[in-house]
Amino acid sequence: MIEMSRADFEVLVSEALDQVPGQLAALIDNVAVFVEDDAPDSDPHLLGIYEGIPLTERGHYYGGVLPDRITIYRNPTLRICETVEDVVEEVHITVVHEIAHHFGIDDARLHELGYG
């Protein structure tokens, strides 16, 4: 397992978010992104999770709700990586994967696109 401080990992998540094309980033609505050290006990290998209502499922009733939440898990990511470059790539893939869920793209399609 590679070692990386939480602060350095958070910078990688921030950089991955900065790489989202501006036209796409402008469409992200009511989402907060967090970094947690460990995934839930129920799925300790989870690298990230999107919790919320995808844009494709929001109707005219949507409003006054707490932001959707994307969480990126540091320790599971570090456990599967051998180099800093691997961490950078995995964080990028995970961030894109979770943002895609916000846009209503499911896991099957993400795997087809290489973001599984």
From TrEMBL:
Record-linked Pfam families: Zincin_1
SUPFAM superfamilies xrefs: Metalloproteases ('zincins'), catalytic domain
This protein's name: Metallopeptidase family protein
Originating organism: Kribbella ginsengisoli
